[in-house]
Amino acid sequence: MPERVTIKSIARDLGVSHMTVSRALSGHPNVLKETRDAVRKRAAELGYVKSAAAMAMRGDGTGIVGLLLPNIINEFYARFANTLATACDGAGMQLIIHLTNDDPATEEAALDRLREVQASSVVMVPVPGRDGRPTAQVAGLRTVQLIRQRAFDDATGAILLDDGPALRAAIAHLVGRGHSRIAYIGADAALSSGRSRLSAFEKGMATAGLPADLVRTGAPSFDMGRACAQDLLTGEATALLCGGFEISNGALSACLEDGGRIDFVGYGDPSFYAWVDGGVTTVQVPVEALAHHAVQMIVEGRTTETATFAAELVLRR
Amino acid sequence: MPERVTIKSIARDLGVSHMTVSRALSGHPNVLKETRDAVRKRAAELGYVKSAAAMAMRGDGTGIVGLLLPNIINEFYARFANTLATACDGAGMQLIIHLTNDDPATEEAALDRLREVQASSVVMVPVPGRDGRPTAQVAGLRTVQLIRQRAFDDATGAILLDDGPALRAAIAHLVGRGHSRIAYIGADAALSSGRSRLSAFEKGMATAGLPADLVRTGAPSFDMGRACAQDLLTGEATALLCGGFEISNGALSACLEDGGRIDFVGYGDPSFYAWVDGGVTTVQVPVEALAHHAVQMIVEGRTTETATFAAELVLRR
DNA sequence: GTGAAAGCGCTAACAG
DNA sequence: CTGTTAGCGCTTTCAC
């Protein structure tokens, strides 16, 4: 295999010292213009790229951003990653993606790998059920928590959702359409987001003078949402509100197969919600805004702040 | 900030040489069990992780896999990335994702960045229109081309689709349903995949004794598919066949808004195709199989082979 | 304007 | 069983 092209190999090739090459390439003033041009020309010919490893070892930062997501198939996560990746490219950074599948051990391993490569920052959707665990693995990693927030993890930044108003608006919408038996499927209390959304649902129902008794919670996933919806469809519920991205897709699949007989309000807004069944009413989350804010926090080093974005009910059909 | 934990700092802390620490941590036999345990204990307490930069500089390989995709929102790409990321984690590698948006300059920049970090391998969906360009940027990068293949780039591996039979089956299916005015939207000739799919369409139509005159090609994108479909919907076409993932989604959105009056066969099989409009007939691609094969090629170093996977027509509704 | 030395973290190759 | 040296590619510091 052809020897790696380094400043030294270029220097040898040109009969100068490797320092001259270094200076020429980094635009240092103290280099004869002739020399500089010759060096640059040769470097381009040889396809020289500076070793990121060497730079990292010198402590110059890696420009690597880590992204930990449960998965990347759900369109919310995909859109977030898409925007983040594009913005990172624009800012001269690279994105390493790890999928946690909401599994604690996987998350821990991923964080370790990111520490190995000295990632400058990490954006992560924390997995459920690790509240209170000392964030040993996070030591030395500037992290931003996305959507969910771990308790007792206040040294890290967070980008959260204010979806209470939208969820309550969803209930008001369903009540306005004559429903009184409104069901809810959401994440369980292991997740900060699960707790707050459930509480919003309960408040909304109380305001409407309705009982919040048709509730299903658990670890949020497509299958969980689908199973709970199938279960609810056999009962007395006439409307269904979802409190999670994956749950919403799973529940919707069940409702569509059921023939759309139940009034459905989803969570998140994958593009096909606009086309399906004449349009699905849903709690829309400003994904791109979240992602852009994440990039800002990263490049400006403000990774200890907490930002909150409002979700919005989108009526369709 | 707290000093970085290195084998040297641990060595100082324990009053031994850094080599003893190195050996203890890497399980070298020649270390007193006592010493080894003490070192490992201290390293764990301190949260030591070995510097990937140092390893890379020694030439031990980075375990970094690059993935270049047009975007990651389209479910085909998302599923591919999801499977690849999971498999990489399992194989102790990390995935760096770059989105090219099908733009040549972006692709070139991404490849340079991956060379900087000395990525062990790169899986890429080549951007259109760079045939024949010397692959200077690819020098020293073991790459696998996905779905599309660049001409004159035969030193790299490839994972391709054999979708001709499925496309011809789609035509037979539509003909069987009484259609004679069948339209096609696909990528233009700047893409190997565009050329082969169009040719499959033409062959299929010829076999059926029908003219292949309702054809639209161009740079494949959601908007392109949507615009072409809207255009075709105003004409005499009674059925529409798509030859691209993004195109298919765009065209489908137009057809759904049109009320589903045209017979539609999509390309790729995002999960919602099963729910929409009673189920969308489509050319299904074995994404997971492609991704697993990519991982195999990478870990086994067989990055110059070409593999082909068959697409399959899935009838729905 | 150019060069030589040192050091970032790690391990292979030699001493002991 | 343990320690010392050298070198991976790069820039900063100090000569010349």
Task: Please give the structural blueprint.
Two copies of one chain form a homodimer.
Chain A (H helix, E strand, L loop, with lengths): L6 H8 L3 H8 L7 H14 L5 H6 L6 E6 L5 H16 L3 E6 L4 H13 L4 E4 L17 E5 L10 E6 L1 H13 L5 E6 L4 H16 L7 E4 L3 H12 L5 E5 L1 H13 L5 E5 L14 E3 L2 H13 L6 E5 L1 E3 L3
Parallel strand pairs in A: 1-2, 1-3, 3-4, 4-5, 5-11, 6-7, 6-8, 8-9, 9-10
Antiparallel strand pairs in A: 10-12
Helix pairs in contact in A: 1-2, 1-3, 2-3, 5-11, 7-8, 9-10
Chain A binds a DNA duplex (16 and 16 nucleotides) through helix 2 and helix 4.
Taking Cα atoms only, what radius of gyration of chain A do you get, to the nearest Å?
25 Å
The number of helical elements of chain A comes to 11
With strands numbered from the N-terminus, the spatial order across the biggest sheet of chain A is 2-1-3-4-5-11
Shape type of chain A: elongated
Oligomer: homodimer
Number of strands of chain A: 12
Measured by DSSP, the beta-strand proportion of chain A falls in 15-25%
Give a brief description:
Chain A has 317 residues and is an alpha/beta fold. Chain A is 42% helix and 18% strand.
Could you explain how this protein is built, in words?
Two copies of one chain form a homodimer. With 317 residues, chain A is α/β, with parallel strands linked by helices. The first copy, chain A, has helices spanning 7-14, 18-25, 33-46, 52-57, 75-90, 104-116, 164-176, 192-207, 222-233, 245-257, 287-299; strands at 64-69, 94-99, 121-124, 142-146, 157-162, 182-187, 215-218, 239-243, 263-267, 282-284, 306-310, 312-314. A six-stranded parallel beta sheet of chain A has the order 2-1-3-4-5-11, with helices on both faces. In chain A, helix 10 links the parallel strand 8 (239-243) and strand 9. In chain A, helix 7 packs parallel to helix 8 (192-207) and helix 9 (222-233) crosses helix 10. The first copy, chain A, is elongated, with a radius of gyration of 25 Å. The model of chain A has no long low-confidence stretch (mean pLDDT 93). Chains A and B meet through helix 4, helix 5, strand 2, helix 6 and helix 10 of A and helix 4, helix 5, strand 2, helix 6 and helix 10 of B. Chain A binds a DNA duplex (16 and 16 nucleotides) through helix 2 and helix 4.
